[in-house]
Automatic annotation (TrEMBL):
Keywords: DNA-binding, Repressor, Transcription, Transcription regulation. SMART domains: HTH_MERR. This is Transcription regulator [Lactobacillus plantarum JDM1]. InterPro entries: DNA-bd_dom_put_sf (IPR009061), MerR-type_HTH_dom (IPR000551), MerR_fam (IPR047057). CDD domains: HTH_YyaN. The keyword Nucleotide-binding does not apply. The keyword Chaperone does not apply. GO terms for molecular function: DNA binding; DNA-binding transcription factor activity.
């Protein structure tokens, strides 16, 4: 099945403007043109866009994504480079997760502090500077519980 740029924008949440930019930037060599010269995407192209979006959301620069796309076009000879790129990106994502967990700990502390202050009727009654230590597994458990309640 082929999709117009407008249909892809609706389906993916990536604006038509951004899709055109990606095409001009060399990130979407899989985009085809119909007989009127309009960009069209197939299901494989949608899958590739999903990966590009994932990489972008994990903080990978467009230049690196372009390199990855170029390596994909290069075939199996570039498998080691692609593997190395994804291993490095995994480390970057793990660093983001770690930082997010630290931020979650601080946010949870403030929630706990304000709940106690509400119960006691005054912020002065609560030690707001003390942040209890929580393990990463405790925080990940909280994230899982949140996801379950939100049905993510």
């Amino acid at each position: 099945m082929l999709y117009s740029i407008g249909a892809v924008a609706k389906k993916t949440g990536i604006s038509s403007y951004t899709l055109r930019y990606y095409d001009k930037a060399g990130l979407t060599p899989f985009v085809k043109r119909d007989d009127r010269g309009q960009r069209v995407f197939d299901d494989d192209g949608l899958e590739s866009l999903g990966l590009i979006r994932c990489l972008k959301q994990t903080g990978m620069p467009l230049e690196d994504i372009r390199q990855f796309v170029h390596w994909c076009d290069g075939g199996d000879e570039t498998l080691p480079e692609r593997l190395t790129m994804f291993e490095k990106q995994r480390e970057a994502v793990l660093d983001q997760v770690h930082q997010s967990l630290l931020n979650l700990r601080k946010v949870n502390h403030k929630i706990d502090s304000y709940r106690r202050a509400c119960e006691l009727g005054s912020e002065a009654q609560v030690d707001c500077d003390y942040i209890p230590k929580r393990t990463a597994s405790d925080l990940l458990r909280q994230v899982r519980e949140y996801e379950e309640t939100q049905q993510l």
